[in-house]
Amino acid sequence: MFKKILIANRGEIALRIIRTCREMGIKTVAVFSTADRESLHVKFADEAVCIGPPSSAESYLNIPNILSAAEITNADAIHPGYGFLAENAGFAEICAAHEIKFIGPSAEMIQSMGDKITAKETMIKAGVPVIPGSKGLIQSVEEGKELAKGIRYPIILKATAGGGGKGMRVVWSGDQFESNWDSARAEAGASFGNDGIYIEKFIEEPRHIEIQVAGDQYGKACHLSERDCSIQRRHQKLVEECPSPFITDDLRERMGAAAIKAALAINYEGVGTVEFLVDKNREFYFMEMNTRIQVEHTVTEEVTDIDLIKEQIKIAAGVPISGKNYFPLRHAIECRINAEDPYNDFRPCPGKISQLHTSKGFGVRVDTHVYAGYTISPYYDSMIAKIIVRAQTRHEAIAKMQRALHEFMIEGVMTTIPFHLKLMQNEQFRKGDFTTDFINDFDMGSEKEGDFE
Question: Which among 60, 90, 150, 181 has most CB atoms closer than 10 A?
Fold first, then answer.
């Protein structure tokens, strides 16, 4: 087992990893930018090293500085968390070259799933259902239009190196193709330094369902059931839950089996997710694989009683998994609390937190790195907390989440709590009748309406 792990991340996920390491008797090293000097992950780690100024490019994405921090503290492993360098194949390769264990899959595994065209080809060979589309990158408008006719509109243009909805455009007819092609390529090039575009059939009324998987160094893989991530805005998830109100037992079995096929196809080592789109007829299609821990891993932990960070560390240390598949023991919901103004198009609201009281009680978990007096920086993601509840039924979980949201009091900055409270009261949501487009028509109303019952 590792003696000391450096956490190449910040905020709540860094603190989350530190807690598990402490329970396992493993020393930890926090890295931080000058903007994060007062963050809890810096205070709670055994050691802390400043790796640069506030800009991510000069700190949390600065590979030489992170490696230097690992070497001067004698860390024998690095946990990347999520975001930043978590799916950077070059970083995983450099760690290996310096004989520091990267807690995650190998560079080759990350690379094989990081490029969406390669990932799709791999899944086809493995017998995993994929969305109809181009076999490779589209080289011209004319080629794209011809292919789109065969697939039939609507189609979606996607950046091969994409993420977070960038370089993605839905095209409903041939006369819209060229303008969308130009804007998708321009955005992809600016965001990723790669303007490669491919085409897929656009799935109408989709649900975004992901399957949690784990694979060890000995060729075994298992799944830990699904998470429904359909409540999202601009392709950014807001609420996740398990089990999905849309998924049947039979579909859960089939999607789980497909996810294991995907993991075994690349000899996957670590904890990750296989993401699917599920249409209104409950046909499912591979979308992508995330080769890292995810923000919403907590949902799976609450329904399976398994510490996924601990599993990640054990797998990286060479401990074999049982190979057993896990199914939900109860219902769990996670709400991401962001420092954003939900009444003004979710505009980020950095600033100083003057007062804070987090939710407590049976079946309520809050993962956060903030506290009264903490200043939310404008340099990083606006998520400041996750509220996770668990209960025996979905109805009980929604009621518990409402109570927990009412209890979570934060002053000094605007947050998305009012949005989540309104969502928990929405009849469509309560019935489980929603798709990935649900938030597009969601009306927040006026801030003057006051508190929610």
Answer: 60
Task: Note the residue count of the chain.
Answer: 453
Structure tokens given for 369: 């790195």
What b/e sequence results for 279-310 when a residue is b if at least 16 CB atoms lie within 10 Å of its CB, and e otherwise?
A: eeeeebbbbbbbbbbbbbbbbbbbbbeebbbb
Residue 64: exposure state from Cβ atoms within 10 A (0-12, 13-18, ≥19): exposed
Instruction: Read off the CATH number of the domain in which 314 is found.
Output: 3.30.470.20
Write the DSSP assignment of 113-156 as a string of letters. Answer: HHSHHHHHHHHHHHT--B-SB-SS----HHHHHHHHHHH-SSEE
Vertex 282, ends 278 and 283: CA angle to 5°? 70
Same domain for 213 and 194, yes or no, is no
Instruction: Tell me the C-alpha distance between 277 and 130, whole Å.
Output: 9
The identity of residue 105, as a single letter, is: P
Q: Are 191 and 225 found together in one domain?
A: no
Q: Give the per-residue pLDDT at 3.
A: 98
Please check the confidence at residue 449 and state whether its pLDDT lies above 90. Answer: no
Structural domain including 42 reads 4-103
Query: For residue 124, is it within any domain?
Result: no
Q: Which SS3 state, helix, strand or coil, does residue 42 take?
A: helix
Do residues 71 and 137 both lie within one domain? no
In the numeric block, which tokens belong to residue 336? 């991401």
Domain boundary among 175, 201, 227: 201
CATH number of the domain to which 39 belongs = 3.40.50.20
Please tell me the total count of domains within the chain. 3
Tokens of 124: 């086809």
Residue 10 within a domain = yes
pLDDT tens for 291-324 read 999 999 999 999 999 999 999 999 999 999 999 9
pLDDT at 450: 46
**Alpha carbons 436 and 232: distance in angstroms, whole number:** 6
Structure tokens, 243 = 């089990």
Q: Tokens for 442, please give them.
A: 């969601």
**Cβ atoms 31, 56 nearer than 8 A:** no
pTM of the entire predicted model: 0.89
The reply to whether 66 falls in a domain is: yes
**Do 278 and 338 lie in a common domain?**
yes
3-state SS, one letter per residue, for 371-439: CCCCEECCCCCCEEEEEEEEECCHHHHHHHHHHHHHHCEEECCCCCHHHHHHHHHCHHHHHCCCCCCHH
Positions marked catalytic: 292
What are the tokens at 92? 């995983």
Cis peptide before 320 (omega within 30 of 0): no
Q: Are the beta carbons of 403 and 420 closer than 8 angstroms?
A: no
Torsion, Cα of 64, 69, 71, 77 (10° steps): -100
Cα distance between the two ends of the chain: 50
